[in-house]
Design the sequence.
């Protein structure tokens, strides 16, 4: 994975801001759309490496986050424009969006707003638009809002603390990520956290009726979740999934909010096959 760790950070000039990104591999472009507080460095390098065997993986920082200039906005439709603008600068006219957590909300917005750009959507550890029955657990807030998270917080936030195998996977993923990470780039203040939460609030209010649109979209959607996600409970998909017209769903037992970090090999295989056969 030496090349993964050594990848150059580049900057796409989007006019009013510069979007920081890294590119891995060749093939169809897959845009990795990040979680709450996520940066270029917080994806598991093994997951990137496995995906980059079949795709051109593009990871990026939202405007105003990490190494990107500009500012984050609580309007998810504006955040989703980062995807479109980055694709335009890179002259890519067809992409898969892979959104994790908050990034799954952004990915759904991009899927609906840019149907001529997004051919497939992969939604990891996230929820559908609109009001959902199962809320975020208090354990998320207790850990996620600390200025700096340690390894024990990561177990709670992204894995399943009750599972020994999940905790072992957490340690392996943590070690891969922290081999090279700039923690100073990770958002750490409540004013920035509130911008993320504002996006989540707007997604639940659903003024643009994304909930009905995502049911009917012809874009193939793959949903990947853990069975105990303290942020976006997988149960919120169950009453919704059978109303969707073009979706698949994978749920891992003994797994939390970051299934692609607990099972990078298995998750990458699911995604590769999904894109190949749909």
Sequence:
């Amino acid at each position: 994975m030496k090349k993964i760790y050594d990848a150059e950070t580049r900057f796409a000039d989007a006019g009013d801001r510069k979007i920081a990104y890294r590119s891995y591999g060749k093939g169809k472009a897959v845009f990795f759309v990040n979680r709450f507080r996520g940066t270029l460095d917080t994806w598991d390098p093994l997951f990137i490496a496995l995906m980059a065997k079949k795709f051109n993986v593009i990871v990026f920082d939202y405007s105003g986050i990490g190494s990107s200039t500009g500012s984050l906005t609580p309007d998810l439709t504006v955040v989703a424009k980062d995807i479109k603008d980055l694709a335009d600068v890179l002259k890519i006219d067809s992409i898969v969006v892979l959104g994790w957590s908050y990034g799954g909300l952004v990915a759904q917005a991009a899927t609906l707003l840019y149907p001529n750009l997004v051919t497939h959507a992969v939604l990891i550890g996230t929820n559908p638009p609109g009001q959902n029955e199962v809320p975020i657990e208090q354990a998320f807030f207790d850990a996620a809002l600390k200025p700096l998270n340690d390894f024990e917080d990561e177990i709670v936030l992204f894995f399943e603390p009750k599972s020994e195998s999940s905790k072992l996977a957490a340690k392996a993923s943590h070690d891969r990520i922290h081999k090279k990470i700039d923690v100073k780039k990770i958002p750490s203040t409540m004013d920035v956290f509130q911008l993320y939460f504002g996006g989540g609030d707007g997604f639940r209010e659903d003024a643009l009726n994304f909930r009905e649109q995502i049911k009917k979209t012809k874009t193939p959607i793959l949903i990947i979740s853990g069975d105990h996600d303290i942020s976006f409970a997988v149960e919120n998909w169950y009453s919704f999934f059978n109303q969707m017209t073009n979706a698949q769903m994978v749920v891992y037992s003994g797994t939390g909010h970051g299934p692609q970090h607990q099972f990078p090999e298995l998750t990458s295989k699911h995604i590769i096959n999904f894109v190949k056969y749909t």
User: Anything to note?
Assistant: The chain has a mean pLDDT of 98.
